[in-house]
Amino acid sequence: MLNVPFIKASRAQFLSTLQARIDHQQNTFVVTANPEIVMYAHQHADYLRLLQHADFVTPDGVGILDGAKILGDPLPERITGFDTMTALLTWGSDHHKAAYFVGAKPEVIDFLRDILPSHYPGLNIVGLRDGYFTDEQAVADDIAAKQPDMVFAALGFPKQEHFIAIHRQAVNGLWMGVGGSFDALAGTVPRAPEFWQKHHLEWAYRTLKEPKRLKRIAVIPRYLRLVRQQAKH
Ligand code: UDP
After folding, report:
1. Membrane spanning segments where (predicted)?
2. What's the pLDDT tens digit per position in 107-117?
């Protein structure tokens, strides 16, 4: 879609693919992309190349499913960063995997430090640091020293994808950009209730809760126009 290669898989299929790759210590870069990310990539060639070099780009956002339908090649379902991360944390807790968390505000990280061990008792939490660091190399060195099975980067796009692309060789594990998922995990930004999600209105709920999101959905008409143009070719 607009040169971004989305995977075509169910959530369950994708999750077992990731688990197998983590078990085999395969270096894996996952991007969960919404229309805003696709539009940003459309306007920034270096970011587009970065997405094209990721191992998996998943459809995070109903706008991507709509776009795939317009292109006549529908995708089975949304695969969000938040859902994938929490599923991997549960699995990681059951299988004693090591996880590294980098991103979000210091107070969110402090809160996660308190709650994560009881939520995921078997998980080996080898790093928890906020995303407002100045010495990026020091963060990368720490990740390299800890050798986690999974690195979750919640720095927002495009920062988190740039960070992963530059440092992913430090660890042969999973590297995934998860946007605002640490905030959601900490409960500082509530997830849309089931009803809104089922009716594909999560974006509306989040916009009501957080008006700054209006900027994000503002790209959707232009995005759909570009996808329709692509469909004609
Ligand atoms: N963030 C960060 N470092 C930065 C800029 C942002 O750690 O330099 C964090 C921010 O605190 C938030 C996340 O990145 O937790 C971005 O969330 P946002 O809601 O903007 O992203 P989305 O969920 O839409 O991808």
Report:
1. none
2. 999 999 999 99
